[in-house]
Amino acid sequence: MSKLNAEERKARDNERFSQRVDERRVKGEDVVAYALANKKAFKFLTKSEKHSLKERQAALLEEANLKAKEQLKLKDEQELEKVQAEFTEQ
Prior knowledge:
Residues 58-86 form a coiled coil. This protein is an all-alpha fold. The chain has helices spanning 6-27, 31-37, 47-89.
């Protein structure tokens, strides 16, 4: 088998991702979830699917931010409790 140059590899990979997205779409699977998991699939989504992807990404980012804030708040509370416990012991 001959080696492919960069353009040929890119074309082959694009064709594969296009087929995978189409297969999932035909099966009724969630192609937006597939694109979230695999960034290369993004360019093979329809306009409405891309919009849905952007909304989901924003929701996931917001969820991650809230989780990070909660963890930070919990850490701060634990540190405050620790300092208060040390202060009351003295």
